[in-house]
Predict the 3D structure of the following.
Amino acid sequence: RMQNSRSKPCSCPSLKMREVASMYFTMVAAFLVILVVALQGSAPRQTDFPYKVPLDPQGLLELSWNVSYPEQAVHFQLLIRELHFGLLFGMSDRGEFENADLAVLWSDGHNSYFGDAWSDAKGQLHMDSQQDYQLLGARRAPEGLYLLFRRAFSTCDPKDYLIEDGTVHLIYGILEKPVPSLQAINVSALHGGLQRVQLLKPNISIPELPRDMKTMEITAPDVVIPSQETTYWCYMAELPEGFPKHHIIMYEPVVTAGNEALVHHMEVFQCTAAFDSFPHYNGPCDSKMKPERLNYCRHVLAAWAMGAQAFYYPEEAGLAFGGPGSSRYLRLEIHYHNPLVFKGRRDSSGIRLYYTATLRPHDAGIMELGLVYTPVMAIPPGEDNFILTGYCTDKCTQLALPAAGIRIFASQLHTHLAGRKVVTVLSRDGRERQVVNADGHYSPHFQEIRMLKEVVAVFPGDELITTCTYNTEDRSRATVGGFGILEEMCVNYVHYYPQTQLELCKSAVDPGYLRRYFNLVNRFNDEEICMCPQVSVPEQFYSIPWNTFNRDVLKSLYGFAPISMHCNKSSAVRFPGEWEKQPLPSITERLREPGPRCPPAPGPQPAAPIPLKLGQLRRD
Amino acid sequence: RMQNSRSKPCSCPSLKMREVASMYFTMVAAFLVILVVALQGSAPRQTDFPYKVPLDPQGLLELSWNVSYPEQAVHFQLLIRELHFGLLFGMSDRGEFENADLAVLWSDGHNSYFGDAWSDAKGQLHMDSQQDYQLLGARRAPEGLYLLFRRAFSTCDPKDYLIEDGTVHLIYGILEKPVPSLQAINVSALHGGLQRVQLLKPNISIPELPRDMKTMEITAPDVVIPSQETTYWCYMAELPEGFPKHHIIMYEPVVTAGNEALVHHMEVFQCTAAFDSFPHYNGPCDSKMKPERLNYCRHVLAAWAMGAQAFYYPEEAGLAFGGPGSSRYLRLEIHYHNPLVFKGRRDSSGIRLYYTATLRPHDAGIMELGLVYTPVMAIPPGEDNFILTGYCTDKCTQLALPAAGIRIFASQLHTHLAGRKVVTVLSRDGRERQVVNADGHYSPHFQEIRMLKEVVAVFPGDELITTCTYNTEDRSRATVGGFGILEEMCVNYVHYYPQTQLELCKSAVDPGYLRRYFNLVNRFNDEEICMCPQVSVPEQFYSIPWNTFNRDVLKSLYGFAPISMHCNKSSAVRFPGEWEKQPLPSITERLREPGPRCPPAPGPQPAAPIPLKLGQLRRD
């Protein structure tokens, strides 16, 4: 629009700016072509890209990356083992190919091109007006073609994905035929898929490891991976008899070579000390042959998911295992993800524990924050964005935490299938202070234990507020809280030290207020909803006619009604005190969403005052 | 952050870009200093700035401006009759000096400076990182100093005000002493004030006027303006006996010279034809001496407010007056705003009507959209942002509008003192299509009839949805709908042609559903609210304990409950049909908020694909 006013000096800056910019960019482009050619030889070192995941189940595409927090940018190295006529790589909200932010390499059969593109709601590709996937180099090697590119976390291009902490859904697509142009690429016909990763790995310095450190591998013994998409494999291991108390101070994955794309995640659980022994087992976790007692092996010792690296405990703490009062029995669970249903693949993956007999100053502990597993917390059907909140109140932390506080250093977020976002915020004196852990693209299929970027100190009187966002658009009846896979949870397992007696700090709406809600809905809508006391809470939720009023009032209820607190030493033992009909924590000051940090736009004038020659101004 | 990575070619573009930009801006700054000096002579023509308002009550600051829609920018000419040591001019949400966007001219006693600044929530001034008030010139003249500057509607600087349609609150402040720097200016100690204007006047071509056009001045006869801040003056005029039907095709203000800063707004009303005659009157509208019958003179013929220009009817229509069935009596109402309580000022301002006996094809009409004046629509106390919505339903427009539709060409928004925003949207088949009129900075103290930028065609079956936003933070009890100044309204008077019988198309919540709400609140809160049927709706609202649940559920009620429609020929006569318990119009597609149009940020690479020298890509 500014180009129209040629004669006005005021509008020139932008115009000239563009000309200058255009010339400049031409230079940059020429330089880059040269760079690409020049790089055909020098290989970047492996240590330049410490993180690595296969993108596709065959491992034809392999992504390595690093994160520069000073630059607020990610550098990607993409290895394409068999390049056909190009490929798409990018990011989108939940792994869909629509509304995605893409780097595209394509060939028209003669020449190849690279560009930053975006796909619209129909999957149509468009060149981005602002090119934010910056190509740094391309290099042929015996194993394939390497592409190197850089992407700032935030570009301020509204078409671009904002790279945030937590899960990022990476997508890839392979071009099998030449395409005349970017616009000609048909996204729906692509061979492609998605891979979830934590792109912004925290930048944590590795603590010094003691000399007497030993290792123990908890690995599956030569499993034949079932030829089905999803298998949860269970294997029981046991510690030596009389194994004394040790501290686990680190663990890392052991993945059988060649199976990197199949081993999706693994966890080691310790069984309860309530039983003296557990049967041996090596088979699918959902098998009818699996002994019932294995369900009592749920205390997490270690957890790994694809793309994760070794997990280090902070130098002041270790996770206790062995010794009296702890079970010798461990359960290894491996999630094999085999969408191409390979047959006869053998695997001996697992987790290698690093432990020491020289106990560190503190035992680490795990605490459950969020919602109690109860049907009183429910989500109406057909919601795209329904929020439930669980509270750990000041009253509970006052009672259960030591005066010096605890330090949370890692967190594992957990919901069932409807979960889309999870966040825990620390509040003190009614003011939100710090995000403990947040995942705005949370997936129930990608539940890692994540080291926090910053250790969070929690003191007596602090509040920990965990908020989960659910999508129930595909459901026709209410989703209630509970243990079932079609029921929901909202949990943050926080890893902290020093260990306290507080194992559970969770809440649910007061059941009396929920009864008032059922009554109100009944009367307001003139409907015959059975209010007979023998009808269960889920049945009452299932019978509600879900009009906008009943939905809104349920939200209002959850935002208003007092809560029942579970401030527990173990899942069944509460701390002494009154925990029913507790007031909701009130928040007087919220944390501000960090705005995207954009490069400054070219202002039409400099940010300095303009001197005027007006002479002396008049005095009164 | 990018400066840290000197060795990486990828991060250079931004860095170099800044250097180039910096050099460039230095040049521009030098150029502007020269420009300012050069302009000390050539006077811009008056027609360059067609709109004019005094900023202060003494008229020492006079603002003229023009609007360039192609450039999306406003050019300002500010005349400072008595310059002391500088001045502030700017815009803010509602005329406050905090969080304001300011152009500042200041002198340290020796030199003068101009800059774009912003004030924070405490009123402290800061230089803007992006200078968007672009100084175009400064010129001394016998009458004072002229400053010329330009401002784009949207700058994308988050500190800047976004200039939108509707009311803009301009603020000014005069520096009485030299200041060493911008930061040293103490905003709270300034002599300053605010002036409301419609900055973005529509760009309407003036229709051709007929040769037989006559004029009639409805002016107050030599009024002595009372020496008080606010006076509404009433004067009764009458048309000649036997005056036949004419069309008013234009009107303009007649403001007595020297009183430009005192005459705030003026309206001419026609009295009802129900009475044969009306008494003469010339005095304050709130005087006890004012005859009661003057309250029956409420049909708007013409309305003007400060900063407005002549009002032209579209060439196909005129406003009928005179002739049988219409009253000869007119009431002129003038709002004098005299904050400096000048004494003895004489005034003969009023409105000049341009009319013709050659009737145009269509009579123009006025229709009331929004909410019925009833206490069932209420706003809880202490709300900063409470929304009420009034509907003109498809059923009513289906019945009352001609098949060819009507054309809305002007609109006057109306609320009482708590109103902060008003918007009317046209919806067809459940999809929002067009904003009829919107004011995001609406003030009840500045109610103009505004020409629409685009004439809006409304057809049978269309819906017109009027939404008002209220602030009741200063109130301790509920604000109910009604005629009183402390009760509320939500109305859009739309001016349209051809005139139809439909005078009122408004709604209110179904009173039965509101009773259910009172019951529900009563039961839910276990409170003793008197539900006796003899208690009035306002009394019931006043007795509600306003916790978050009761507030939320009232919002849910208004968003869910069926409505009672007033689809009326006149305020008491409904069109035939069933108008009670009507369903709320459902909207399946909303208009998108237009995002701010920013100048494109300098991308690190051009928006063209980068050619790669990879050779032929492999074929399968």
